[in-house]
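Posting for a labmate who doesn't have an account.
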Amino acid sequence: MISKTKYLLDDETIKAMFKKADINGITKIAPLGAGEFNAVYEVIADKNYVLKIAPNADMPVLTYEKDMMKAELYWYEMIRENTDIKVPIVYYQDFSKELIPTDWFIMEKLEGRQRNEIKIDKSVITEKTAKMVAQIHNIHNDKFGYIQNGLYDNWYEALSSIITNLLTDAQKAGKKSKNGEKLLKYAQKYKEILMNVPCCMINYDLWDPNVLCTFDENGDVCFSWIDPERSFWGDRIFDFVCLENPIELITKKTESIKYYNSASEFTINLNKEIEIRFAFALGLLALIQEVEKYYRYTPKNFGWWRNIAGHITYYNTAFRVLKNG
């Protein structure tokens, strides 16, 4: 998708980058994927590679997106070391800014098609995704937030900081988010609930393009994950936004909860507190969509209008819960 943040390169520069990584014999270079932040290329040499390039260091990005490529490598390692979820092997990384003025790395190109491109029963997708989410939620930490922005002692402080940073990002773009300010006030209202949330790894970005699917010899579908750069240490309930229908409340996601509980060391039992925590997951997603459109798109782009439709829906759903909680 078109995005202002993508740092696009010519073939000769890409060949020089691969030469620095001691990979030669390139036969194909082509843009890859549906991503909207980094530039991504498929490069074929002795095997199939993916080259991922962060936005130019001078390009304005959201606060949590600064140094996000380093965070992505960190989260790949966390997933690889602590779960059986397949993620790409990273072959080379470069943060020197010698060849280009930004960060980049080369990784394995995983086989498979996006989750929405395969014909498979939705119940299988629900089960497999929920159980994989349970695996990363079994990875714990004693601090909360984005590793690239500094960590906090509890989820209330971390979430408040994340919201505040996004409000500041909006101001830098010459905009103001009244709904974002409203979300911050709700965080203060529900401070006691948020302060007592246990901490684990959260992906918060398990949309179809980030889940690749293949089939084994028995015809069973196998999932692999890519692009975990938006992960953070936080509230496990936030990942349920990406499970089943994203615009539905968590009370409607009983199948995901059932499969999740079968694989998680932490059982989710629906109650008012869980509903409130999930409302913040919707509210934060709304604020991200609201603010990021100023940094990535113009009103001529599809992403601009998709984000508007999304954040209106998510805000409305979140505030109905938070108002009555």
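Reply:
Got it, the structure tokens are right above this. The chain has nine helices and ten strands.
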